[in-house]
Amino acid sequence: MQPPAGSQVSRVPAQRTPPDQLAPPAVTPAPQQQPRRTRTVLTVVAGVLALLCVSGAVIGYVLYDRATAPDRSAPDVVVASYIQAFLADRDDTRAGELACQTGVDIDDLRVLRDDLVARERRFGTKISTSWEDFKIQQQGDRASVEVVLVLSALVDGISQSDRQGWRFETQRKDGWRVCTAKRS
After folding, report:
1. DSSP designation for 12
2. Of 97, 114, 120, 154, which residue is the least packed, with the fewest Cβ within 10 Å?
């Protein structure tokens, strides 16, 4: 029921709960800027590190490849490297990197190497191989290289050596390569 018009009751302000007795206001969470910023920084750092690692791997591969690739820049260089690999080091894999892919005729050189191995066993010594006096005749992508092989050994305290003339035919295909080796 409503109070009559003009009565004093209607002019009394409505009763309100004092502020200290009110329920605390609902706490709205503060915006979560810190974890999002941290996540962004970590993502950028991880991306940069990944880029550096991949770049380092590529640069390492290129440098390793250049350092270990055989030097096939000139006919005499490839012949000297081939003699070192095939006769001195007896490394067929390394020698194969310096040889032509097809049409390789090194049978005479293989016979020489087999003979050196047999003599080393028989005399109990090591026969060293060196080379000198390169003579190059080049025509376009082919070159003939004449070289003197010097085979030396110490047998029973006596130094012995043998000098042999050899002719190597080379061809330029992805660098110079040895195709044939014949005693001259």
Report:
1. S
2. 114
- Rounded Cα distance between 99 and 105, Å, is 10
| 73 CA to centre of own chain | 20
pLDDT along the chain (184 residues), means of 10: 59 65 66 73 88 86 74 91 95 94 92 95 92 94 96 88 96 94 94
Residue 146 bridge partners (DSSP): 135, 167
At residue 69, the 3 state secondary structure works out as: coil
Partner residues linked to 183 by β-bridges: 166
Q: What angle do CA 83, 87, 91 make, to 5 degrees?
A: 95
pLDDT at 61: 81
Q: Rounded to 5 degrees, what are φ and ψ at 183?
A: -75, 135
- How many Cβ atoms from other residues are within 10 Å of residue 147's Cβ? 22
| Helix, strand or coil, per DSSP, at residue 147 | strand
Q: 179 and 170 in contact (C-beta within 8 Å)?
A: yes
Q: Which residues pair with 167 in a beta bridge?
A: 146, 182
Task: Determine if the pTM surpasses 0.70.
Answer: no
